[in-house]
Predict the structure of Dioxygenase.
Amino acid sequence: MTLSYADHPALQGDFEPARYDASLYDCEVIGEIPAALNGTFYRACAEWFYPPRYPDDSPFAADGMITAFRIGDGSCDYAARFIETPRYLANKAARRQLFGYYRNPFTHEPPMQGQYNKADTVSNTNVIFFAGRLLALKEDAPPMEIDPDTLETKGFFDFGGDYKAPTFSAHPKVDGRTGEMITFGYEAEGLATNAIWIYTIDAGGKVTSERKLSAPYLSMVHDIAISQNYILIPVYGMVSSMERLREGKVHWGWDTTLPSHIGVLPRHGDASDIRWFDGPAMAMVHTFAASDEGGVITLDAAVSDGNPFPFFPDVHGKPFDPAGARTTIRRYVIDMNASGGGWREERMWQDKPGALSRIDERFMGHRFRHGLLSFSDETKPFSGDMGSRRPTNSLGRFDFATGEVEAMFAGPEFGLQEIAFAPRSPDAPEADGWVMALGTNYETMKSELLIGDTANLAAGPVARVRLPFRAPQQVHGNWVPAWSRGA
Ligand SMILES: [Fe+2]
């Protein structure tokens, strides 16, 4: 049987599948990796081992792959390995793609038709180290445990059976002081249901609470936020239904006519304590973080007015609107003391699009000042060719108090992926340390890990770890300091 990616326009150039596991000892380094930088940068990647059944399927359905940059003593070793999900193994046994559209089991090939959740997940969205385990995350299924040293797949993990929802989040929040995780699954009572189950899991990995909510409507709840006292749950017009799945459509469609909502649940309250606040259409796919004082919550997020995903069509047939997809940094202020059910929106940083929002996660769930993000500075030169696209070319530290940003320009040849942050020491000041991101060098079409020092971002990368090949496309990743693993 012919195996070719040629008919898939989305899988060309820098998105051409790499398809290989890799292990590379002692990578080439330009500059100096800081001697005090000691840990592993794990990346969750989306990589089609077999081409999609439908050329217009979204990258959300590409196979999960974990890569690891292990850094210490000024050196770096690299490894990459596919996650052996049941889907990946079934496809390999059949030597072809058996599965149809992302999260639409009606479009899978028999005998996989109708199978979903553990059967069709690709575990490709995030990778975290929590309670001594490395977990690959995807919001349509439980976590997949990965050996942090060999990157071998160990299997689905459900916290000793105490995590009961069939789905999990790719963006659980871990309180930076207590180590407690707040996480959730949506479509928690089956495909296309509006059930959201919220869990608290202590730092040792024990589930301590389960709360079952119903959203105002079924929506892609990709990310939440936590403040000192509240859990914030955005619901917006990325919608689905059993009808559209049975019609063989992609899981998600965008509905501009729906209001958006933010659910506010006390961290230690019951499900009945949820309050839903309402506002105009927007898409809050990712949050930076939240904080609260005196009952007033501030939620900072990267938000667009319209559909951010061109591969999820408008349910009313409207053409994709690139201006509506533009993401900017916004602050949402919710007053729990007020009787009204709305919020106040402040637009904070408008001239540089960027959607990959992080903070120094030691401050998650507490007062914080800085956002960390990869963004596109369109005033900078680009020597590569991405067609009509513009590269993400800068890593920034955004100051929510002053609105100012310090930035590291990667160089004219680079397109960057998501930022990761490594604190300088366990008790370093907030956002003091090193930033890093994988870059595609568009002159060589190979990958480099670029590392910058927050003490002088404008100076550019202090180290470039060069790979002799192009690494897979990252969805999200995290720096895991050696000290957090007891090393
Ligand atoms: Fe995400």
In short: The chain is about 5% helix and 40% strand. Residues 304 and 326 are 6 Å apart (CA to CA).
